[in-house]
Specification:
487 residues, alpha/beta, 8 strands, elongated, 8-stranded parallel β-barrel
Length: 487
């Protein structure tokens, strides 16, 4: 029996080893990144730190603006600048998945006599950034008439053939963005006759034309797609966009055997279109959750044994703070959210224990709660400091206390405009002290009671310095009413 058991263990271990390469390949099959020009970091060193914070595997780095110049505004021609970019990317574990010539969104390829030197500049940059093999070339600047205008089409085909052969000679591939469906793209690739040219597939194009995305992908085929812009036009986040059935897209790509980079170009929520972290954080996270295993947060949510509805409420409350920091959809944001939620859970447990002990020993109940609150208070700051700056920790505390500190401080300054610097500083000091106590309180009512007590202290202080608080408030109310507001 023992021999049989050992044999089964050995066979199971061998099976696991055989499956391991497939499991690893499945994890690395898809990489998710963002376009640096769309996150307002075109050829800026900060693009790598931003990509890292968003949870990206890499970036699609742009060659710089083009306009009517003969060359890109590419600072990475400088070997030292490129080395700094490469070092920064490597140190953060962020890859350069592709290099883009986005300038051709607005410039006509057939009207650029320097097109080959532009492409070679792109290839050189790809080498400096670690041997990236995929370049992006949009044909948007050529307009759409070239698809039916024989002369214009012939000119594009000729130049794409030359570009493709140059790419092949350098061990690279140029992915083109066209207004065509799969049938049209296959025909174009056949005319170009170069393995150095493939399609840089764009979901937005297919959706805008009303074509079936999944069918189009399958028709085009895996070998003809070098990378994907996996987003729609600006309207909704990908997770909320009914125009793209992303699970069906993944199933199709899996069955096609395709692997490569998925870059988020757009799909920003138009209600917050300028909030880079929230828009791209949400889209990157959605793609990584769907196409890969999203990294497990370092800080677990301690929700075991708690009512599911209660946990949902607490998590939503915690996300108000990460929303205020614009990090909700990032790995860092998930850790911060869990720290805040766990703090709420901890407070609930402390006060539940206090209430239970009260039934037999009120002094013991109070002492036990105070001791645990003291440790919990400083532990909360320490936990947050792993992920947040001191200024951001204050923002978290402000959200947790309904921003009463700033609202109250501004009210006093508006009520009594002649407050001295010393008086303003004292008011703020007491309000900050109140906030530190309020974040330990068991309910919103208790938090407001603490602030009410400190407002009383502030009023007494101001009265002692000669201010008539009642009169000041009456005059303030008149001023507020006169400007159309109300207290």
């Amino acid at each position: 029996m023992e021999t049989m058991m050992k044999r089964r263990v050995i066979l199971f271990a061998a099976a696991c080893l055989l499956l391991l390469p497939d499991l690893l390949w499945a994890q690395e099959r898809y990489q998710v990144g963002v376009c640096d020009w769309m996150v307002l970091k075109r050829q800026k060193l900060g693009e790598f730190a931003l990509a890292h914070e968003l949870g990206c595997d890499g970036v699609e780095l742009d060659m710089g603006s083009l306009g009517r110049r003969d060359s890109f505004e590419n600072k990475l021609r400088d070997a030292r600048e490129a080395a700094l970019f490469k070092h920064t990317a490597d140190s953060l574990g962020v890859a350069v998945g592709a290099v883009a010539m986005s300038g051709f969104y607005a410039q006509d390829l057939t009207q650029k006599p320097t097109y080959l030197s532009l492409v070679e500049d792109c290839f050189d940059t790809m080498d400096r950034m670690g041997g990236t093999t995929v370049a992006f070339l949009p044909l948007g600047g050529c307009g759409n008439d070239w698809t039916t205008n024989k002369d214009k089409r012939a000119a594009i085909v000729q130049r794409l053939h030359e570009i493709g052969e140059a790419a092949k000679a350098r061990g690279k591939v140029v992915g083109i963005d066209t207004p065509l469906d799969a049938k049209g793209n296959l025909r174009l690739l056949k005319e170009v006759k170069s393995d150095g040219i493939r399609i840089f597939y764009k979901f937005q194009t297919i959706v805008e034309h009303g074509w079936d995305l999944v069918s189009d992908l399958r028709h085009l085929g895996a070998r003809n797609i070098c990378a994907i812009h996996a987003s729609n036009t600006d309207s909704l986040w990908l997770r909320n966009d009914p125009a793209i059935n992303m699970p069906a897209v993944k199933e199709a790509l899996d069955q096609m055997g395709w692997s490569g980079w998925l870059f988020v170009e757009r799909s920003r929520d138009t209600k917050m279109v300028k909030n880079v972290k929230m828009n791209y954080g949400s889209n990157v996270r959605y793609l990584k959750e769907l196409f890969n295993t999203y990294p497990t947060p370092a800080v677990p949510l301690k929700s075991e044994g708690r009512d599911a509805d209660y946990v949902s409420i607490i998590v939503s409350r915690a996300e108000k703070a990460t929303d205020a920091l614009s990090i909700t959809w990032t790995p860092r944001g998930e850790n911060v959210r869990n720290i805040i939620a766990n703090r709420y859970f901890q407070l609930n447990d402390i006060y539940a224990e206090r209430d239970s002990l009260k039934q037999r020993d009120k002094q013991l109940a109070a002492a036990t709660a105070d001791s645990k609150l003291y440790r919990s208070h400083f532990g909360f700051d320490a936990d947050l400091s792993t992920y947040l700056s001191p200024g951001d920790i204050i923002k978290v505390k402000d959200v947790m206390t309904y921003n009463v500190v700033q609202v109250t401080y501004d009210a006093y300054c508006d009520m009594i405009p002649r407050l001295t610097t010393e008086e303003k500083e004292q008011i703020m000091a007491w309000l900050v002290e109140a906030r530190e106590l309020a974040i330990d309180a068991e309910s919103s009512n208790k938090k407001h009671e603490i602030f009410k007590k400190y407002k009383g202290r502030i009023n007494n202080y101001l009265s002692a310095r000669g201010y008539d608080i009642q009169k000041e408030r009456e005059e303030w109310e008149k001023r507020v009413n006169a400007r159309g507001g109300k207290l």
